[in-house]
Amino acid sequence: MKQNLIFVITLILIAFVSCRKTHSTTVSPALISLPADVPGTTITLDSFPLKIGYQWVYRMITQTTMSVSSGTASLNISTPDSGFLTVGVVSDTLINGFRMYGFSVPSRSAFFTYNSIYLTDSFLYANLADGLHRITAGGRTDSNYVLDSTEELIKLPVAMNNTWSYNYGSRQWTDYVRVTTPAGSFDCIKLFVNEDRGSDQYGMVQYYSSKGLIQELQWYTSWTSAGTGVHDNYTYYTMLTLQSLNF
Prior knowledge:
Low-confidence stretches: 5-27, 108-114, 140-145
Distance between the termini: 82 Å
Number of strands: 13
């Protein structure tokens, strides 16, 4: 009888502990990330495909993490938000002898950080001897127009491990990678971007082929404080994966 009583009490305790574990566990969504790099074939990349009518369709996933430090740190991860983004070359113009191209970029690009190649539709782009440059559309159209080297998005032709300055940080070609997407498999060159703006940190990994931007993951971290001693650390993630193209 005593042994039976001990056995019953043991079962009750096990059930109680199990229930407590079940109710105290919180499951957060997995953080979006790029697939592991697959070594690719060495390719030559000396220009970005710019021609009126060229179009790229991407799947875009965005996600936010928030770390709150107020005595007890906590981390909240949002459920990823998914959608599709169509980007196309829609115009061209001559500015002081430079052929500049304009993109059509939907409003969903508001999710992008300053680093993205497709920031907004208010920029013009040009392939020059040293790479792809970007300027503000209509902002520098006088006869004394000179391309600003700080707007050199990608340095071309590619030289592996080549690093150049851009805004508050640097960009570097790092590796040859084979990238598989719904649009097909592409031999790409990997670009790493890093910027330090004090309380704001920017980072990005991009994969370029002769067909343009194939895949991208970017993140932007910002620290905020309302003078209360409570510091909130927000990180915004955006991932692009090519779905289709028309050239």
